[in-house]
Amino acid sequence: xxxxxxxxxxxxxxxxxxxxNGFTATTVDELKEIDGKLPYPVVIKAQVQTGGRGKAGxxxxxxxxxxxxxxxxxVLTMSIKDLPVDKVFVTxxxxxxxxxxxxxxxxxxAKLGILIFxxxxxxxxNEIAEATPEKVAKVLLPAGDKLDDFIVQYAADxxxxxxxxxxxxxxxxxxxxxxxxxxxxxxxxxxxLVLTEDGxxxxxxxxxxxxxxxxxxxxxxxxxxxxxxxNKLVLEARGxxxxxxxxxxxxxxxxxxxxxxxxxSSIDLIAKAGMDCTCALDLGGGATADxxxxxxxxxxxxxxxxxxxxxxFGGITRCDEIARGIQGxxxxxxDKRMVVRLEGxxxxxxxxxxRGLGSGMELVDGLYEGxxxxxxxxxx
Amino acid sequence: xxxxxxxxxxxxxxxxxxxxNGFTATTVDELKEIDGKLPYPVVIKAQVQTGGRGKAGxxxxxxxxxxxxxxxxxVLTMSIKDLPVDKVFVTxxxxxxxxxxxxxxxxxxAKLGILIFxxxxxxxxNEIAEATPEKVAKVLLPAGDKLDDFIVQYAADxxxxxxxxxxxxxxxxxxxxxxxxxxxxxxxxxxxLVLTEDGxxxxxxxxxxxxxxxxxxxxxxxxxxxxxxxNKLVLEARGxxxxxxxxxxxxxxxxxxxxxxxxxSSIDLIAKAGMDCTCALDLGGGATADxxxxxxxxxxxxxxxxxxxxxxFGGITRCDEIARGIQGxxxxxxDKRMVVRLEGxxxxxxxxxxRGLGSGMELVDGLYEGxxxxxxxxxx
Amino acid sequence: MSFFxxxxxxxxxxGITGREGSFHAEQMLEYxxxxxxxxxxxxxxxTVLGLPVYNTVREAKEKHDANASVLFVPPRxxxxxxxxxxxxxxxxxxxxxEHTPVHDMLKLHHLAKxxxxxxxxxxxxxxxxxxxxxxxFMAHRIFAQGNVGIMSRSATNCYETAFLxxxxxxxxxxxxxxGGDMIPxxxxxDVLPHFExxxxxxxxxxxxxIGGSEEELAAAYIKDHVTKPVIALIAGTNAPKxxxxxxxxxxxxxxxxxxxxxxxxxxxxxxxxxxxxxxDIVRILKTLx
Amino acid sequence: MSFFxxxxxxxxxxGITGREGSFHAEQMLEYxxxxxxxxxxxxxxxTVLGLPVYNTVREAKEKHDANASVLFVPPRxxxxxxxxxxxxxxxxxxxxxEHTPVHDMLKLHHLAKxxxxxxxxxxxxxxxxxxxxxxxFMAHRIFAQGNVGIMSRSATNCYETAFLxxxxxxxxxxxxxxGGDMIPxxxxxDVLPHFExxxxxxxxxxxxxIGGSEEELAAAYIKDHVTKPVIALIAGTNAPKxxxxxxxxxxxxxxxxxxxxxxxxxxxxxxxxxxxxxxDIVRILKTLx
Lengths: 380, 380, 289, 289
Description:
The complex is a heterotetramer, with 2 copies of chain A (380 residues) and 2 copies of chain C (289 residues).
Chain A: H1 5-14, E1 23-25, H2 28-34, E2 42-46, E3 59-62, H3 65-76, E4 79-80, E5 83-84, E6 88-92, E7 96-107, E8 112-118, H4 125-131, E9 137-140, H5 149-159, H6 166-182, E10 185-196, E11 201-203, E12 206-210, H7 219-225, H8 232-239, E13 243-246, E14 253-257, H9 260-272, E15 277-282, H10 289-300, E16 307-318, H11 319-328, H12 330-333, E17 337-345, H13 347-355, E18 361-364, H14 367-376
Helix pairs in contact in A: 5-6, 10-11, 11-13
Chain C: E1 11-14, H1 19-30, E2 35-39, E3 47-48, E4 51-54, H2 57-64, E5 68-71, H3 75-88, E6 92-95, H4 102-115, E7 118-120, E8 126-129, E9 133-136, E10 145-152, H5 155-167, E11 172-177, H6 188-197, E12 203-209, H7 214-225, E13 230-235, H8 260-269, E14 273-275, H9 278-288
Parallel strand pairs in C: 1-2, 1-5, 2-4, 5-6, 6-7, 10-11, 10-12, 12-13, 13-14
Antiparallel strand pairs in C: 3-4, 8-9, 8-11
Helix pairs in contact in C: 3-4, 5-9, 6-7, 7-8
């Protein structure tokens, strides 16, 4: 789960990491309340889950109340990469002597945490690495709960960080590493990490991505989830423990299947045949008739989904259950084209039920046949 | 460094380990002060660094003030295995339902900590293991700072500890393990670990042996060292960073050498030739003339040492320095026989100096020759 | 032969007193797997399916000479249970649970490596050597004894492949679910040497997918060390970027790292045969076996 | 051949800016050992004996492809310094310091094992392959190239042996000080396979002493795996019980565990030749080489 910037700062503050303070606002009234709480000039930052805010005009400076309200409203009414800006984060403008980059993330290849640091910051890390590779340290962390001093020292030494900054930098790293571990982060990034005019290190912007599998340990983060700008169908599906994946805006096919691998295989073959999927829904295990009905209701509510491709292969999934679920969903899928592939226990009973539902149903045997059917509009 | 019982209890209390409370006394006056502070009956225990106190009469029970003073004085004036009892530890007499054994120590073979537990206690652990081996669990601890729950559970399960006691037993083990780690113990033993009549676990007697190499981390333990019953020459030698080792009361030879291996080899060959050593002194590295003088003064003050065997082999030790040290020690070694073996840099200069000291000195070339000289009274 | 599990396996089931644990213990017994005991802390002394249950893995290991363990425990207990099995020196530890925290797996992966333990999973169907033994929850009826080794990040794509193989009367030596998580206990590279060394295995099928670098690492290993034919499927070519496709591990980074194209390219260069679908795997297999 | 250190060694000295570190770095350079750099936290960027000094082992390793490290650091810093070297993947780590806390060594011993690092010491004179290289503080003048391998818990008994060998013109392949502490990084059993595999080594001398079980474990290993003649000396037969003889590890338990008798008995049964003194070692050597 990727936190919004102001949420990341809240996490940093919790651990005592020097990080910018500010206030959020969702309306002009709330902007008015901020006036007077911060010394001008202030920075108004759009809170959306995407990069490139600056270029899109999502970061504005205000010298006084008037500008705060005007520019704040402006940002609150804009969209960035199709995401409406619901909230802004207003902070003091800090005098910056130097911008740096610091993050802890996962190295999947080595299966270790990794510290990434550059005394050059502000840009994306891959841009920095392209421009000045010698100024980027990527140091794998030994497995365990300790950030070894020599790791940080190495990062500082090899990038030429001013030795006078090293002691404070080590403290900063230790604290961010604690955030990384204790908040189960996949990414804890500070960019820019700034050296202020008065010589302190401070997190000016932060990205925090928390392992979804660990949210159980962090109930306070779970409550943030509702606030996030997110696809409504994704949220609805999550309520039933389904995974709803939006795929391509231009697609017309919705896939309902039971397993990640199967879904990817289906998308791949459909794409190969020149068609596009709009979404996919993963039922997970234990597909009962009731759950199938809910799943079909959710995908059917996506107006782009002209065709629903149900592709079920389960060792212990009962095909008659699936068929009964489809039967119960006829009311909301009536105007959709349905291609159905069933494999597993009680396959024949399931097929019998589907056949009884009439010509709207296209039954196929196997994935290839399903994709052929989707392509050719082949009927049973 | 092996703590006395009352010191072990003090360490246990520091960690909140349920452990018996009591008072120490070194005089009858101090015994009088204890009267009234504890409910009778009380237990009076001699504080000496040896086992078998009970059999030697070093543990007494007192029903009242009169008995406390009488028996207390009795214990304070006794010696156990040649160690005079300077101090007693007086505690309440606890009603005991069951005596058990628990310790954490080092397994040198596996190079791991080891938990040893038996629901039978009171005797020495090797006696328990001989009598009822199935009631003794010896469980190696994985390297690290955590006492894993499953280790303790296993110890309890395999010795048949009452499952109702397991939760409290786990807490007890965790605390003792913390003592073991944080106080750098070579041994942290509780015997007996008792189940009191009111159903609690309590340490009734404890043995704690702390790694000498870690005393720097535990200044409060270092202060205890002075209190311990210890050989005066050992203490004096320690002041100069020498190691003085008493060997055999009946021996007449003192060895002065520079290295543990060399000392052991010397003792072995001397014993093989039918003679006995009374003590040995290890100079360690950097043997200057001054230090040799101090070392010779210390061994010469042992009246048993009729003969001093100086056996020096050092890659970088200068033999002329050693010789000058011997020269400076003539006043206090004049009535001792001296056998000297020198090997290393400036050997010839050293030998020249020794030869100049007169017939009291016997020079030998090598360890075998030295042992021959010791045996035969061979003169130069 | 075959490896990981076979007639010499002496398997314990951690979490055997749970609903899933007992159900699948029964399935494994039905498959004639030598399940010797169960472990559930606090339930020691009880019996499930006629098997003794212990509080600790160590007791089960000592009393029954157990050499493998399969864990049916919820994700939040997985770390402790796997840690215990690894530290007790069980040589094969199979973890099933989905939704294991990534930081937990980070530690377990290296702990198992350091201790020389083969840790399989999590988010895996387990391991099966058809006709001999299984440690996991896979529907064993779709597997048959044969000489194709399969290792797969995906359960469904593996099932589908096995199912299609069965129709063609092609069986498997050993099938390993390396699991769909970001940090697996054992990777393709960890499993490949076993397939290469196993005389029963004649062809290796590797079912990979987008995300991570395991297929690239496998390609490098195959190039230098594997002499047997390898058929590889990479699922997710057309999956959107920066979106997890259900498996926590199946995600292409915004910068394109973990894409199917790169994986296929490197596997092709390493001499692997690239299948475009599960049916395609079986088509290629028919030409080889 | 020889092993651990030789002409391919690229050694770093941790603690090179200290008095002992710089003195012995100079000695090692004088012996033509390929010392490539020094490491002292906080002294990075300086130079000692013309060698660059770094803050971290890692930087020294990357800049100079270092493969060995010798530590001249006080005992209270030993844990951190050895930990850093091991975690950085230096394959040979030699520790000199006496008085290292036992609990520290307990962790380091296993960490090194887990990471496949050869940790030598502490309380050791180091390692020398005469005529090639040395990592330690031994007086190298008493060693000469030859075909006897020595491993020793005691420095002085080893020196004396080497000195007596020199008089008889018998030299050494590699000499390893396993150290006199209770928990050594590498034990006799860890070193024996290297001597067995080293073609230069024709005879193995093992200088043990009372305390612990290393000699017993070595006996078991020798019996099954060592084909070369082994001459063993066990010092301390007549040492009093329950008293440390200077080496922290040289102590016989009150119950007699760690006694010289048992060690000699088992070594004899394993086919080792028992020497009663250092001179006796050389006497036996003369009959063999």
